[in-house]
Amino acid sequence: MAQTEKYVLNMGPQHPSTHGVLQVQVELDGENIVGAKPVMGYLHRGIEKLMESRTYVQCVPFTDRLDYVSAMNNNLGFCMAVEKLAGIEVPERAEYIRVICAELNRIASHHVFIGSLTNDLGSATGMIYAFRDREKILDLFNIICGARMTAHYIRIGGVAADAQDEFLRDTQKFIDYVPEMLDEYNKLFSGNEIFQARMKKTSIITKEMALKFGMSGPNIRASGVDYDIRKIDKYGAYGKFDFDVPLGKRGDNWDRYMIRMKEIAESAKIIQQALDNMPEGPYMAKVPKVLRPPKGDAYHRVENTRGELGFYIVSDGSTKPYRVHIRRPSFVNLQALDTMCKGMLLADAVTAFATIDPLMGEVDC
Amino acid sequence: MHSGILYSLGQSLREILTSLIGVPILVDLLMTIICATILLLIMATSALVFTLGERKICAFIQVRIGPNRVGPGGLLQSVADMLKLMDKEDIVPRGIDTWLWVLSPILLLVPSALIYAFFPFDDGVILADVNVGLFLLIAITSQTVLPFLMGGYSSNSKYALIGGMRTVAQMLGYEVPMVFALMGIVMITGSLKMSAIVEAQSDVWFIVLQPLAFLIYIITALVESNRPPFNIVEGESEIIAGPFTEYTGMRWALFFLAEFSNLMCIGILTTTLFLGGWHGPDFLPGFCWFWIKTFLCVLFYQWVGWTFPRARVDSMLSFGWKVLLPIALINVLLTGVGIYVYNVM
């Protein structure tokens, strides 16, 4: 009699589709997945600990290296937490510039999502199209702060430099291009038969499961949970803008993809409003040269591209934080991988991983 | 009898050889060797040309520039690639099944070179015009499964093994509809001879008479040659490179060469079986038409490959068995009815 045996396949840390150094131990029965165990820590740099030995201002660049494809959002989260702790009022113009940068970076990060997803589905063409458009945003960042990925542009108390007219003009150009861009993506992949067959009804996460896992960001919204911190907390200038939170129904790969496509359009809407109502004034608050926040602690969360990014900072009154804890959305979201992969095929593991959209810099911290 | 530049060239070469040697068997042998050498050269050159073509076309589709540094406009890029591959270290992984592992790339290249003997390049220009030409072609092309499985099995790597297993599943799913689709052509022609199949298309190409078979053939040909969107055997985002994962340098280059040879082979087959082979308006000689059509077919296959994402294994197999096979059978039925009606009228 023929005998079959389950076996373990180590995907990663060197594998084309793990988007970084993640190892997934996939237990397989033929090509059917029995279980998937993510093994992380290959990119652990001890950022939380490193922050304890740096001044608050010196901590900001570390946040760039957390989720390095949406650095602006990370800067924003940390800076707002420190501002909360030290009681710094940020000028309105700075708030607006921050929103523009954060939303641009959200679009850029979704570009990476679309690119890596299509690449994992075997269409390198999709990747190049997404990255071509992401390049436009990186060029915008280049104009505003000279850096492209690890921006370190949002600082405690405001932003590093004022937004030039050139930046605002080019941003407007990009926003005008967004509908055309989405149309092209829809033509190239969303409408594709094979693409839909692979995305629809695969790796479903129900509402209950998503809540149980503590997921956040586009992943939980794809499961139909209306949870967007930009709407709930209305932090920064977000309360002043009118935008929708797209929600999914089934919580499958397709929903997770479509949510991000719709979010790009929503982000463009926010940026458009911010550009139209851009106030004049200073771009930086009066922040003391040596920042000594009073004793106490503060938690601030922002809607990062990947979900709820929280910074918990404890101050002992000195120039350095006593303790920093980072609630990383990718890390939490990655828990769902096993559930998403069970009962699927090996090819779906790659898709599931891509639609969770974790970033190893953030997972390992 | 036959006309065309290539045919007369061959005839005059044969006459010269006969006057020089005189023994008919030796002349035949020499002619065969010359033809085989030319075919191998065509195959090797086509790999070089298609590598560059693929890079450039792919770059065009992907809004990139493509290689443009080596030689004028990047023309020598594929030569540079070949040199690089030759220079690479020959890594033999530990724990492999040595014989199978070493033989796999060689055995893969042999059938893909062998089938060139059955292609009619021009009127009367065919190395082996055997009676069961089409049958032999299909038989030989399905041989490529074995080296893939050998490479996958012997590599001592799970990725390679999965890839090797996928080849077998894929062949089972696609060989059958393909054969049944080609059955229509054989029914109309009444012969398995390749030259007869081309001859039968002198008035109407089979793409007109057999549109269903043409569609099925395009899809199965993509599968057969592991081209995207059906390159599941070497689906790089899942199983790295499938059976070739553990091969490097020239061994890998043999796989690569076989892949491009297969690509050209399906281009040639599409041309021969459906697009009238070397038939075409008289202002160009037959072999020119043959190559123009072949290149257009290859371009089409590459275009498809660079546009679509990869299909999943299970959906691919069920598509083969549940959709393509019934359609192919219906096509056989329709063709039979058509031939009957034609004969009655």
Key attributes of the depicted protein:
heterodimer; A: 365 residues; alpha+beta; Cytochrome-c3 Hydrogenase, chain B; three-stranded antiparallel β-sheet; 15 helices; 50% helix; globular; B: 345 residues; mainly alpha; 14 helices; 70% helix
In short:
Chain A is α+β, with helices and mostly antiparallel strands and 365 residues long.
Secondary-structure map:
The complex is a heterodimer of chains A (365) and B (345).
Chain A: E1 7-11, E2 23-29, E3 32-39, H1 47-52, H2 56-64, H3 71-86, H4 92-120, H5 124-145, E4 154-155, E5 158-159, H6 165-190, H7 193-199, H8 207-213, H9 218-222, H10 229-232, H11 253-276, E6 296-304, E7 307-315, E8 321-327, H12 329-333, H13 337-341, H14 346-356, H15 360-364
Antiparallel strand pairs in A: 1-2, 2-3, 4-5, 6-7, 7-8
Helix pairs in contact in A: 2-3, 3-4, 4-5, 4-11, 4-14, 5-6, 6-11
Chain B: H1 5-20, H2 24-61, H3 77-87, H4 98-114, H5 133-142, H6 145-154, H7 158-189, H8 194-199, H9 206-209, H10 211-224, H11 236-239, H12 249-274, H13 286-307, H14 313-344
Task: Write structural notes for this entry.
The complex is a heterodimer of chains A (365) and B (345). By secondary structure, chain A is of the alpha+beta class. Chain A has one domain (7-364): Cytochrome-c3 Hydrogenase, chain B. In chain A, 50% of the residues lie in helices and 13% in strands. Chain A has 15 helices and eight strands. Chain A has helices at 47-52, 56-64, 71-86, 92-120, 124-145, 165-190, 193-199, 207-213, 218-222, 229-232, 253-276, 329-333, 337-341, 346-356, 360-364; strands at 7-11, 23-29, 32-39, 154-155, 158-159, 296-304, 307-315, 321-327. Chain A has a three-stranded antiparallel β-sheet with strand order 1-2-3. In chain A, helix 4 (92-120) packs antiparallel against helix 11 (253-276), helix 5 runs antiparallel to helix 6 (165-190) and helix 6 runs antiparallel to helix 11 (253-276). Chain A starts with 6 loop residues before the first strand and ends with a helix. The model of chain A has no long low-confidence stretch (mean pLDDT 88). The two termini of chain B are 30 Å apart. With 345 residues, chain B is mainly α. Chain B has a domain at 104-344. Chain B has helices at 5-20, 24-61, 77-87, 98-114, 133-142, 145-154, 158-189, 194-199, 206-209, 211-224, 236-239, 249-274, 286-307, 313-344. The A-B interface holds A 7, 9, 15-17, 31, 118-126, 128-129, 132, 188-189, 192, 194-195, 197-198, 345-350 and B 61-64, 158-159, 162, 228-229, 231-232, 235-240, 306-315.
